[in-house]
Structure formats: C-alpha cells, structure tokens
Amino acid sequence: VLTGDRLANAKLVVNAIGSIDSLWADLKPEEKLAMIRSMSEDDRSVLYVGDGINDAPALAAATAGASMGLSGASASAVHAADIVIMRQRLLDLEWFYRKSVATQNIVKQNIAFALCLMCFAATPAIMGSIPLWLA
C-alpha cells in the first residue's frame, strides 16, 4: 500500500483489509510515482487506486489505475484511470478482479476450442478429402 496519509491512519485501513504485505505512508505524489515506476520496471503488475488530482500521474503510470467514486474524484484522476468505480467501495475492486479472471478463462477456452476445431477441420483438407476452403 502506498499512501500520502499518515502512518496511524494507514495502519487502521491496512488492518481492516488484512493480508497486506507492506505499507508506505506519508508519501508525496512524486514519491508514489517513483515507486510505481520502480515496481513496473521489475515486471510487476501494479494496481493504483486514487481519486485526487495528485493521483493522476500514478494512475497513468500503473499497470492498471482505478479511480474511486465518480462524484468525489477529480477530473484528471478519472481521465488517467483505466477503471472508474462509481461508488466509494473498495470491495468493488474484488468484484472487478473476479470478473477479469472469469473473462480471461473464457477467452482461453474460446482460443483452445478454435484451435482444436481448426486442427480437426484441417486434417481432412490436407489429405484431400474436402476442399481447403471448407476447412
């Protein structure tokens, strides 16, 4: 967790969320941006969640940026984000994650099905049993 909030406040949130490995608090926007770039250079996927005007550079630099709350978020944060969550609920991130995993699985299944179908259709075409255009 990277945050500009005070350490005591950040610890309360991290304890409520649970299963957080590390916490950096009292960070300036340019420090958060530098850390995100550093993590991205290490081929790590970075999700950044923010809603303020100072979050826009970090949202743009992250692998995926999410802006929380359309009404409370700054226009620059909404513009820089890949995902705009309409409500101020962190639990919506979990829903997005589950949906993205499910979508990814469906895409993989479709690709596997198409490849299998092509292999089965191409075999008779190669042997000359059916015209190639029909395969």
TrEMBL record:
<protein>
    <recommendedName>
        <fullName>Heavy metal translocating P-type ATPase</fullName>
    </recommendedName>
</protein>
<keyword id="KW-0472">Membrane</keyword>
<keyword id="KW-0812">Transmembrane</keyword>
<dbReference type="GO" id="GO:0016020">
    <property type="term" value="C:membrane"/>
</dbReference>
<keyword id="KW-0460">Magnesium</keyword>
<dbReference type="InterPro" id="IPR051949">
    <property type="entry name" value="Cation_Transport_ATPase"/>
</dbReference>
<dbReference type="InterPro" id="IPR036412">
    <property type="entry name" value="HAD-like_sf"/>
</dbReference>
<feature type="transmembrane region" description="Helical">
    <location>
        <begin position="111"/>
        <end position="134"/>
    </location>
</feature>
<comment type="similarity">
    <text>Belongs to the cation transport ATPase (P-type) (TC 3.A.3) family. Type IB subfamily.</text>
</comment>
<keyword id="KW-0479">Metal-binding</keyword>
<dbReference type="GO" id="GO:0046872">
    <property type="term" value="F:metal ion binding"/>
</dbReference>
<dbReference type="InterPro" id="IPR023214">
    <property type="entry name" value="HAD_sf"/>
</dbReference>
<dbReference type="Pfam" id="PF00702">
    <property type="entry name" value="Hydrolase"/>
</dbReference>
<dbReference type="InterPro" id="IPR001757">
    <property type="entry name" value="P_typ_ATPase"/>
</dbReference>
<dbReference type="GO" id="GO:0016887">
    <property type="term" value="F:ATP hydrolysis activity"/>
</dbReference>
<keyword id="KW-1278">Translocase</keyword>
<dbReference type="GO" id="GO:0005524">
    <property type="term" value="F:ATP binding"/>
</dbReference>
<keyword id="KW-0067">ATP-binding</keyword>
<keyword id="KW-0547">Nucleotide-binding</keyword>
<keyword id="KW-1133">Transmembrane helix</keyword>
